[in-house]
Design brief:
Order of helices and strands: EHEHEHEHEHEHEHEHHHEEEHHHHH
Distance between the termini: 66 Å
Number of strands: 11
CATH superfamily of the largest domain: RNA polymerase sigma factor, region 2, helix turn helix motif
CATH class of the largest domain: Mainly Alpha
Radius of gyration: 20 Å
Strand order of the largest sheet: 4-3-2-1-5-6-7
Shape: globular
Strand content: 5-15%
CATH architecture of the largest domain: Orthogonal Bundle
Structural class: alpha/beta
Length: 389
């Protein structure tokens, strides 16, 4: 059997590292053609030594100097900067690209890969949040596909295999509720970075951990599900499920409900996306229902987690609104992690950008790039005004 060729974007992050664990487990099933990182040169060099890709891209120029020095004399092409990342994303001679880049920076690489005729295993939900309509057009034109890697969307994908869209009554996205599920709303004002990063179930990167704490990630998952499964926002509901065993559910018009269950391990949805349409044996741990003492469900608290209704609002607005919200969130989360704003100011900034941006009904890539620059400047001005006051 021929090895499938793969490129991994964001290979040094949480999803990227898990992806390489899966590929290591699936011995001789995959050949890695390229890897990319933003700035983690040490981990990237370790990965290069083990997997021997044809090329790598590293965005940070200073980190790239160290990488190039260590790879002197090798046959591996080292591409640098945003331009290098986009060049790598455009490679045509691979079977699948796994995009694990964090935030809005992952949108354009998704588009480049799909335009090159390459199917994408997508962990970067921001791609569809920012450019869902544009990406759907590219997929239709090039005959390319997206295989979802998010555990919730992988669950929905599996539940919907073989089903007609007209038979769907609603889809139910489950979420753990994050580290602040049981905390009073007033406590969130003083929430620390460490507290927000302490996810109870999943081991994730810093940015997605904060998105889980605000539940912005669940709002973005509503938008992503809308584009992945061609379903309206009225048919998408969120349920808090603290145990993270049921990853999502689909209710059909005849009253039947399908749910996908499994241990909270990202390697499971990663492997499904990489090996589709086949299922291969894994060793990630055995699911034992007898050990489950209870599975509980709660309604999400929109008052405590206002990022969720913001996401629904942006989806109802359509056009550039979801992109504006994503851009705002990228900036506000960074400010929080840098210690420049409080936890509750994340949603304040997100709403200000969503309401204040110049709405466009059908943004193209150039419009989205301009919006990204405007959003960054707008948030900087908000912070300057806050400091002045």
């Amino acid at each position: 059997m021929r090895k499938r060729s793969i490129g991994v974007l964001g290979s040094t992050g949480s999803i990227g590292i898990n992806t390489l664990d899966v590929i290591r487990h699936l011995n001789n099933q995959f050949s890695i053609k390229y890897l990319s990182a933003h700035s983690n040169s040490q981990i990237l060099l370790q990965q290069v030594k083990e997997f021997k890709p044809d090329a790598i891209a590293i965005v940070n120029p200073e980190a790239a100097k160290l990488v190039r020095k260590n790879l002197e004399g090798s046959s591996i092409d080292v591409l640098v900067g945003r331009e290098g990342l986009l060049e790598l994303s455009s490679w045509e001679n691979i079977d699948i690209c796994l995009n694990a880049i964090v935030g809005g920076a992952g949108m354009e690489p998704t588009i480049k890969a799909l335009e090159a005729g390459v199917n994408v295993a997508l962990s970067n939900k921001e791609s569809l949040v920012m450019a869902g309509s544009l990406i759907k057009e590219v997929m239709k034109k090039n005959g390319t596909k997206i295989f979802p890697v998010d555990s919730e969307h992988s669950a929905l994908w599996q539940c919907l295999m073989g089903e007609e869209g007209s038979s769907i009554k609603r889809i139910i996205l489950t979420g753990s509720g994050g580290p602040f599920r049981t905390k009073p709303k007033i406590d969130l004002i003083e929430a620390s970075i460490e507290q927000a990063l302490a996810h109870p179930n999943w081991n994730m990167g810093r940015k997605i951990s904060i998105d889980s704490a605000t539940m912005m990630n669940k709002g973005f998952e509503v938008i992503e599900a809308h584009w992945l499964f061609d379903i309206s926002h009225e048919q998408i509901e969120i349920v808090v499920h603290p145990q993270s065993i049921i990853h999502s559910m689909v209710e059909f018009i005849d009253g039947s409900v399908k749910a996908q269950l499994g241990l909270p391990d990202m390697k499971v949805p990663i492997q499904i996306a990489l090996t589709f349409p086949n299922r291969l044996e894994s060793s990630w741990g055995e699911f034992n229902p007898v050990e489950l003492t209870d599975l509980t469900f709660e309604k999400p608290n929109f008052d405590k987690f206002p990022c969720i209704p913001l996401a629904y609002d942006s989806l109802k607005m359509g056009g550039s609104a979801t992109a504006a919200l994503n851009i705002a969130n990228d900036n506000s989360v960074k400010l929080f992690l840098d210690g420049k704003i409080s936890f509750t100011e994340i949603v304040e900034i997100n709403e200000a950008v969503l309401r204040g941006h110049k709405w466009t009904p059908k943004p193209n890539l150039s419009d989205l790039m301009e919006l990204e620059e405007w959003g960054k400047d707008f948030v900087e001005k908000l912070i300057e005004e806050k400091v002045t006051l």
